[in-house]
Amino acid sequence: MTRFFFVEPLDVVAFRGNKMFGQSGSFGETSVMPYPSVFAGAFRSILFMHLSRSGKMDFLNNVAIESELGSEIGTSSTFGSLKISWSSLAVGELEDETVVSAQPLYPLPSDSISFDGGDSALARLFNLEDFSIVGCYSTRTPIVVTKNRGKRQNVYCHTNEYLKYLNGESDFKVVSTSEFVKMESRVGIKVDGKYRTAVPGGIYSSNYHRLKINNHESYGYLVGLNGSTLIPKSGILRLGADGKAAAYTEVKTNLPTTNYAVLAKRSLFKVVVQTPIISDKGWLPELVNSDNALGGEIGQRIGAVLIGSSIPKREILSGWDISTNRPKPARGVVPSGSVYFFEYDNSKVSKDDLQSLDRQLVDGLLCANENDRKTGYGIAQLGITETVHYRTSKKENINNV
Known about the structure:
Layout: E1 3-9, E2 27-28, H1 36-49, H2 53-60, H3 68-73, E3 83-95, E4 98-107, E5 112-115, E6 121-125, E7 131-138, E8 141-146, E9 155-157, H4 159-166, E10 171-176, E11 181-191, E12 198-211, E13 217-226, E14 234-239, E15 244-251, H5 260-263, E16 268-273, E17 277-278, H6 296-302, E18 305-310, E19 315-317, E20 320-321, E21 326-327, E22 331-334, E23 339-343, H7 351-362, H8 370-374, E24 380-383
Parallel strand pairs: 2-12, 8-18
Antiparallel strand pairs: 1-13, 1-15, 3-4, 3-13, 4-9, 5-6, 6-10, 7-8, 9-10, 11-12, 14-15, 16-23, 16-24, 17-22, 18-23, 19-22, 20-21
Helix pairs in contact: 6-7
């Protein structure tokens, strides 16, 4: 069973991802939404603090810990039963100054575009003329981008509006991050890693984000956890590399799902990426085989074939590996909001099959590595699509694009 927690920052937050900073006079760019591995580290740290001294040494030395706590946390290089099953921005509903429920905020999918309009801007699915072909993985799988795509839009969908999108409606409302996030610029001083003293001339500035809170609602993060009964229902955790404090509380929530009965009558569906996908195949999920067919038991039963995709510019993922005490290798990831289009024979597929596929997609089906799935990568959801948003093109070699 999934336990959902609302994580509410008690201070500003700054998630740098793989962006370098800290040189004299440099400016550190940050993001308001961290990668799910940040939450994996934060909640594992709660379990780590309850280990005995010898247990902590076993954890750091990759020695299995023979206890219920050890089975949940695993070791420094291998996850235990604890798994991040959801990660998103969220808005929490307050009762007597306590968050009792939370609803996720969804990044604008890449097959849509938003228009300025204040607090409730309008978003709309792209038309065919909004796309151009930049290359083909095969004759059936164009890689498409929007014309004049520029930078990604910092807009999000509330749950009720996102449900419209999942069910194939062309128009839905979005909200800009400027409505619930305030940007602050702060000055930092570089610290010597060995002596923890200030480095002469090591002054830099960096962006920080402060999330909105009022008498009725609070903005923060919604995190789903599977495989853990030892995490307390509420408490304080350290968030991000700066170790900023955040309060977490177990809450109720409802994740929207598409109408499977309607979807079962169509011959197309789309897969909307919620957390970045890590794949050795680049933009292509490892679950998609060389024939463009969706692999795995459920994929083979449905017989879905990848026929198109809309993917923003890839992101670079790195971090610090505590098991080796060195930086993790930089890897390109498919960003959240990416969309894949699949075709299937609806005469052989039931709504139960599609519901089963959707559950496995939320479980991280698109990531092949078990540790990546447990860290929260590869979460996606099914959606209805009326048409395939691409134009056919002659076969091209993507390596030449």
